[in-house]
Write a structure and sequence with these properties.
heterodimer; A: 432 residues; mainly alpha; ABC transporter involved in vitamin B12 uptake, BtuC; two-stranded antiparallel sheet; two-stranded antiparallel ribbon; 17 helices; 4 strands; globular; B: 262 residues; alpha/beta; 2 domains; 6-stranded mixed beta sheet; 9 helices
């Protein structure tokens, strides 16, 4: 008897809607809260509005910020958006941008790495001591420097994951310790200049001067992006799932196309396609693929969201934690080589000062959450663009560095506020 | 309805578990048949959670035997249990709030195509799984954080079914839910039974137990205190077994005298 009664309530339950909000249940057959997206562009717009209301802002604030920065500085000094200036920005973002990619990995895990600046310094110092003053080959020294970064990351990861020391403290110790190691390595030299013709010099000083290089890269990016979306859309349609409407694919391709070709045009107006930008983009694309398309990336998000749930799902949480810190260390050392290239050599103070803060700020400004489990690799690029644009613009206006610090600090605060508020909105908009 | 003469899919024979000086389980027997919902009830500290954890492989047993389809088996770690076909849904839902429903359903067992996560196949299977269980959620592509408590619970249960288990353990699945949400979860439990799965349902709520369970196994102070068919047993009898209302001064004196007599 109780059996049939149960069936009755159950039937009503499924008919009325997905949960207990009784007020909304009177609407009849179609539950208005079911988020069935309409096909076509209109459906896309509704979905977009829903996401904004739900606090899923994504990259919107930072893109708006970039536009505002562009307009403000251009109106104050019309050389800001000139080809030369943009070309410089594209080179200067590479080193710290690559470090910021590593920070995004760590932030996705819900942790922080305070040592990246020192590790960048150690990377550059190892390369300089082995490759320039030492007898090792240039390429070997670069590889060893990057490997040393990964090894340092593994040490941090070990103390964090296996010993259980908070990552904040481990990497704070690393911040001090590795910077001491860097100074010790540099010894009496103080600075070791980059020899001309070395790999490290090329990192930020080599340009593909042929105009075909920049246009070719832009073209390849747009075509690949469009094909990937079309292929995905076709598979989804074949599987009977909701797919991106054609109009959306075309719109996205067009937006990317415009940005890519305008950038390529501007770079060609100046010195051509910088090698630094190519490497940075390669790092971004690879990291984005790893994070979004592989099991490993999915596991990083899972550990960042709920480590206990991840462990119960059979994920090796310790392995994920250690490897993520290795990635951060590796990318920090690699980024350090770019900074060495840019500043003409390795020094005792390379990676010190505001490098660490700029890198973390870039990841957060770009939209990666400090609370773990939410973010995109591309936020490293967007955030770095914001920071570098502000710096470049203030330099053009002849502002002192103290003003730059204050403005960058304010932007970082704004980014974190947006992150916290959107997180709260998401919570309240959730649980219907 | 249930063929009790058939061998149980899972059976515990005289299982004991000790934590240091604390004897958590003593000589516990339990049988689960395919298509049977066994409610495991008992007061706080009766050993329900410990018993479930021994089956799930979190705490290996000290004494006794576990039989899987009539054959003796060993469960030392969670992986062993999953390998046999036992899925456990814990009280504190093991879901990642930041991941969407599809990602949560397949967490730890993602479908891949040439080494890359196959989102299309996963979404399709997730959709099918939720449809066969008549689970309705706003979208399989929204983060679990935006679901209601009941929806999260059914997603957690659906997640346990991805590996095609034969026994599902539900630890207090309705503990924190409202009336309507509880109804949803109980519906789902019935659908699991219809699919021929053995279900162990831990619950404090007698109404839930009466509604969906076939058998009630009562634990008291780490021991069996009766196994009752739900249909023919009154509410009061079950409560009495849980609280030990039969355990009064007279029975205690009897027990002491028989023990002394030995």
């Amino acid at each position: 008897m109780s059996h049939t009664a149960q069936k009755g309530t159950g039937g009503a339950g499924t008919g009325a809607g997905a949960d207990a909000a009784g007020a909304a249940a009177s609407s009849g057959a179609i539950d208005p809260r079911l988020l069935v997206r309409e096909q076509g562009l209109k459906g896309y717009l509704t979905e977009f509005k829903r996401k904004i209301r739900g606090g899923e802002l994504g990259s919107i604030p930072v893109v708006l910020g970039l536009i505002v920065i562009g307009i403000v500085f251009q109106s104050l000094d019309d050389s800001f958006l000139s080809a030369g200036s943009l070309s410089n920005i594209s080179v200067y973002i590479a080193g710290q941008g690559i470090m910021a990619v590593g920070i995004v990995f760590v932030l996705l895990l819900g942790e922080i790495d305070l040592s990246v600046g020192s590790v960048a310094g150690v990377g550059a110092a190892i390369w300089a001591v082995l490759g320039v003053t030492g007898s090792l080959g240039d390429g070997t020294a670069v590889l060893l420097a990057v490997a040393a970064g990964a090894a340092i990351g593994a040490v941090h990861g070990f103390f964090f994951a296996k010993v259980g020391v908070p990552a904040f403290v481990v990497t704070l110790a690393g911040f001090l310790g590795w910077s001491g190691f860097q100074i010790w390595l540099m010894g009496s030299e103080g600075t070791i200049n980059t020899p001309s013709g070395s790999i490290v010099e090329d990192l930020t000083n080599f340009y593909f001067e042929d105009v075909a290089a920049a246009y070719g890269l832009a073209c390849a990016a747009v075509v690949l992006y469009c094909l990937a979306m079309l292929r995905d859309s076709r598979r989804r349609r074949a599987a009977g799932l909701l797919s991106r409407p054609m109009s959306e694919i075309l719109l996205r391709t067009a937006v990317l196309g415009i940005i890519a070709f305008v950038c390529a045009y501007q770079l060609n107006q100046s010195r051509g396609l910088p090698l630094a930008l190519v490497i940075f983009l390669a790092v971004l694309v690879t990291a984005d693929f790893v994070v979004r398309r592989t099991t490993y990336g999915r596991q990083i998000f899972a550990v960042g969201g709920n480590a206990e749930a991840a462990r119960r799902a059979g994920i090796n949480v310790e392995k994920i934690r250690i490897t993520v810190f290795m990635i951060a260390g590796l990318l920090a050392a690699f980024g350090g080589l770019f900074i060495a290239s840019q500043s003409g050599g390795a020094s005792k103070s390379l990676g010190a000062g505001n490098v660490l803060m700029s890198v973390i700020a870039a990841a957060v400004i770009g939209g990666t959450s400090l609370f773990g489990g939410r973010g995109k690799i591309w936020s490293a690029l967007l955030g770095m663009l914001v920071i570098q644009s502000i710096q470049q613009g203030l330099n053009l206006l002849g502002m002192a560095s103290e003003i730059q610090y204050m403005i960058t600090g304010a932007v970082l605060l704004a980014a974190v506020v947006i992150d916290s508020v959107s997180r709260r909105t998401q919570k309240s908009a959730g649980r219907t | 309805m249930i063929d009790v003469s058939a061998p149980p899919v899972l059976a515990l024979r005289g299982v004991s578990k000790r934590f240091g000086a604390v004897q958590a389980l003593t000589d516990v027997h339990l049988e689960i048949h395919p298509g049977e919902v066994v409610a495991l009830v008992g007061d706080n500290g009766a050993g329900k959670s410990t018993l479930v954890k021994t089956i799930a492989g979190v705490h290996p047993i000290d004494e006794g035997a576990i039989e899987w389809k009539g054959r003796r088996t060993e469960i030392h770690k969670p992986h062993d249990s999953q390998q046999l076909g036992i899925a456990t849904v814990y009280q504190d839902l093991a879901l990642c709030d930041n991941l969407d429903v599809v990602a949560n359903l397949f967490l730890g067992s993602e479908l891949r195509r040439a080494g890359v996560i196959d989102e299309v196949a996963m979404e399709k299977r997730a959709q099918e799984l939720l449809d066969t269980l008549s689970i309705r959620i706003p979208s399989v592509r929204i983060p679990v954080a935006s679901l209601s408590g009941g929806q999260r619970q059914v997603v957690a249960i659906a997640r346990a079914l991805v590996g095609d288990p034969e026994v599902v353990i539900l630890d207090e699945p309705t503990a924190a839910l409202g009336v309507e949400q509880t109804a949803q979860v109980l519906d789902l439990v019935e659908r699991l039974r219809e699919r021929g799965l053995g279900v162990i349902l831990i619950s404090h709520n007698m109404a839930d137990v009466k509604a969906v369970a076939d058998t009630v196994a009562v634990l008291r102070l780490g021991r069996n205190n009766g196994v009752f068919p739900v249909r023919t047993t009154s509410h009061e009898d079950i409560i009495a077994a849980i609280t030990g209302a039969t355990d009064n001064a007279v029975t205690r004196r009897q027990a002491r005298t028989t023990e002394a007599g030995r």
